[in-house]
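=== RUN LOG ===
request id: a7f3
mode: sequence -> structure
chains: 1
length: 240
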Amino acid sequence: MGKVKKSSNTARGTVTCDNTTMHLLKANDFVAESIRKSMLEQNILMVNITSSAGSGKTTLLQETARRIGDKVNMKILVGDLETERDADRLREVGVDALQIVTGGICHLEAQMIWQGMDNLSLEGVDLLIVENVGNLVCPASFDLGEDYRVTLIATTEGDDKPKKYPRMFLTSDMMLVSKVDLLPYLPFSVDAVVADARDVNPDIEVLEISSTNGTGIDQWCQWLIDKVEEKKKEYSKVFS
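=== RESULT ===
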């Protein structure tokens, strides 16, 4: 089996009718490519964090900021249907976070990210994280111009999600199994969820984490730091 392409290449909106491909999301994809070019020119790594609602995205990002906020200049765009609660939580730990209120839309789109970037000072930023709306369906189809897509699957939501929502896991580079501190109390099999995810996407990386007891958080933070350094090397090759 050939290597699965990165999320930025596979998250495209198409529908096939009588062997004719209609690009329903061409406008989104055009903006996404503009964002990707801008991120490279500014030497910024962009990571899109996706999951179901309540999987622990914001708590993970709070802990991430506490651990590497002095090593990596990080800013965050947060998507939700209403309120600024998640952005407020991130600001409490010292992160410059901007809330994108979708007003009922169940996902973020590239033009929302573009507008959000216009309202953030990105001078000197190393890492731009997008916390997507909590939903395993719609966000899978929208390329945001990210370098990497990371999807959380919480032990509290069951281990059957990769096969039920395959597009999200196909287009993800990393799966974080979150809330593993609760494994002794839940009928959740890490082996089963990893097997299903890799059946969908053989190249997906997997890390078990808990923002409560710290399991895997250092490894997650190091992954981010390593990817930031790789992006800087890419920048040097392109613009040297």
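=== NOTES ===
Residues 63 and 142 are 27 Å apart (CA to CA).
The first helix runs from residue 7 to 10.
=== END ===
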